[in-house]
Specification:
It contains nine helices and ten strands. It has 253 residues and is of the alpha/beta class. Helix 1 packs antiparallel against helix 4. The protein starts with 26 loop residues before the first helix and ends with a helix.
Amino acid sequence: MALQENDLLAADAKPAGAGVPTRRIARPTAQRLTEYLIILEELRDRGEAVVSSRQLAGIYGNNANQVRQDLSCLGHTGRVSQGYAVPELEQTIRKVLGLTSPRGLVLVGCGRLGTTLALHVPLTNYGMELVAAFDVLPGIVGSKLGPVTIEHAARIPAVCRERNVELGVLAVPKTAAQEAADLLVAGGVLGILNYTRVMLRVPPHVYVQNRQLVCSFIQLFYSTFSRERLPGAAEPAPTGVFGCILAPYKRMR
């Protein structure tokens, strides 16, 4: 069975080199830390020097006690009397999550979704670098996608081994998903971000993170219209990265 999303972020808490998580953190906590990081970047860009746990919770949509509990696992956080020093807390989270040195990542499937991910997700800001992209269509193979030239999927194992790739993204039709995953595993990839609708079969040491876009739309539909049918129901707090982005605007309405 592949590693699940509630497993611990790191196998142990021993010091690690650049690009390796440095502490043992439960995955729900690690997920919130990634989202705090996005908030801190926005605060830094606005020139904010200090943020309190209450302010951070207000933007994220949880509570100050949860924020303090999450940040307590970081060790030195840049705590000051009024809160946390934004730049120092941002850098601490980056270090603990292993984002200080880029890891190679490959993309399998260069259709519209794959192209959008490659061109518009700022991977290099978060410890990842797109080093190769693959497809099988003759009209796509050989063309440029950002910094890389798209190669045939048959070369996945060889390229991954040559370039020491450990991360892969699947954006292929569901009929090709398992075969593409097998090629990534054969190349030594340890983590797969799966945008297909297939539950992949991978060895126990490989972590799969599933991202079903259609589920997000279904959840949006349900949350929107179930709230309308409940008189006096409070608007749910924003969660996730999109919640982080939307929260300040929701308070301005």
